[in-house]
Specification:
Length: 184
């Protein structure tokens, strides 16, 4: 059940990622893309999060997650799989919170990379590269797990599979975005 629940839990994130890709690829909502989450703030002469963390991305992920979690709960209402979601919480609200948690989870890593002088998608060479790559792949998931732990922490087998799925899907999505010329 652990893998199935992790895949179920991950599905809205994957679908939100596809929506985000489409929004970037076709430059939808360009005015929102021009609004950085860090409002242009500078710390130690460097941008707080950089120009790739925008209101467009945050809203796309948050709204998509709210819609997809709601749809998933409706479609699987009689299934044991939905026990991964907390009972009594509105699925639209919960999905939106999960989206926000993903976005917020990515911000500390973006801050660190900007302060170290790395461009978006760039990692240092040498022995720290694998560690920073791993953090870059898992930061959003960690934000989500922090949020879920406040309400209902998933079973350890589900957490294991969430990490495994994320380590496959996240870099695959990044590769496809670069391949198709839509890197953000």
């Amino acid at each position: 059940m652990g893998f199935r629940q992790a895949l179920f839990f991950s599905s809205p994130f994957m679908l939100a990622g596809i929506v985000h890709f489409i929004v970037i690829r076709f430059d939808l909502f360009p005015r929102l893309a021009a609004i950085p989450l860090d409002a242009g703030l500078v710390v130690f002469e460097r941008r707080l999060f950089g120009h790739h963390k925008t209101l467009r991305g945050a809203l796309t992920i948050t709204i998509s997650m709210a819609v997809f979690v709601t749809a998933e709960v409706q479609l699987f209402s009689g299934s044991q799989l939905i026990s991964i979601y907390p009972k009594g919480l509105n699925p639209f609200v919960w999905g939106g919170l999960l989206g926000i948690a993903w976005v917020v989870g990515e911000l500390p890593n973006s801050f660190l990379k900007r302060q170290l002088g790395f461009a978006p998608g760039q990692l240092p060479q040498g022995c720290t590269k694998p560690v920073l790559w791993l953090v870059d792949q898992l930061d959003g998931l960690i934000g989500v797990l922090v949020l879920t732990s406040l309400v209902q922490f998933p079973p350890p087998t589900v957490v294991f599979w969430l990490f495994a799925i994320t380590l496959v899907i996240h870099p695959t999505g990044e590769f496809l975005m670069k391949l198709l010329g839509s890197s953000n």
